[in-house]
Amino acid sequence: MITDNAYAYMLHNVPGLGNKTLMKLLQEFGSCKNIFEADESLLKKIMTVKQSKAFALKRKQWDLEAEYEHLYNTGIDFYHYGSAGYPIRLLDIPDPPFALYCAGKLPDERRPSVSIIGARNSSEYGKFAAKLFGEKLASMGVQIISGMARGIDGISQQAAVYAGGDSYGVLGCGVDICYPEENRSLYDELISSGGVISEYLPGTQPKPQFFPPRNRIISGLSDVVLVIEAREKSGTLITVDMALEQGREVFALPGRICDSLSYGCNSLIRQGANIASSPEDIVDYLKRNLGKNVCKKSAALGGNSSSDKNDFINDSSTFGLNKTQECIFNSLDFYPQTTSVIFEKLLSSGIEISVAQVMNCLVELCIMGIVSQTGTGFYRRG
Question: Domain 4-73 - what CATH class?
């Protein structure tokens, strides 16, 4: 028996039939099978002459069963609007994708999802925050959605995977193409433990015009959109606009007023976006506004409220440090400081410690991977 998905896959392969036209056809005829079998005179009421010719040719040449079986054998799952498995979160967004391809799995509808987005050329502050939020939210059962791009996107998704959580990448190319290539290991991990999703046909190469439309899927699959870093006129803000249009809640990481990478975030906060001062802020929002649904989505989020504060531990205690290491870590910034400056900070805080102890602890923190040495005698977080 030929399924409606097989008909939908054929329709999605017709050259020149864009998303809006396909959705109009589906609305008019009710099913993909009905579109396939419709009389040409009826189709021309919606299609252009060029589109109807391309459709007629494809309908004549296309082997429904063989083509769909070939797709199935590649390990890529296919969903069309309204079919079983199509994400519920996308059903009511403006301009929902007619088709979705997935390598791996789709996000679990029962669990909360947060998209983490931001600058490709991020600062050390942004990298640290992306890792922190990605790791902690994922460890609490929150699914992390992003675009697998270099910078904030990839860092947050990698952190989620390392934390044993689920993350999903929405691509501006076919799901069988890794872009950017530098995120190959992340791409493979997402397919194994989460999923890679696209509305573009397998084999579609990445093009600049494909990325803005995919952003509506990133925000659409999410309950919350978190912006880590963004310049004042950043492409990241396109996703924010789409999120607001979809009724999603937006959080932004505050930054220094002198950092251009924080202009976008600070502007969003000024316009009413929620301040993301810690991962706990987002979890509190999910619990408060999604209520019981949050507990259903993730048992980890439905724990005893008395222990919630302990689930998210800020700063140094995130890494299980001893008291001395904690004091030194908390004295550090994302901007490099000399050993002498760090030592003076500790003394001014009333902490009795020797220079040798400071040096030893800095080495230990570097080995742990939460502190970096830049140049001779300069240290920073991350």
Answer: mainly alpha
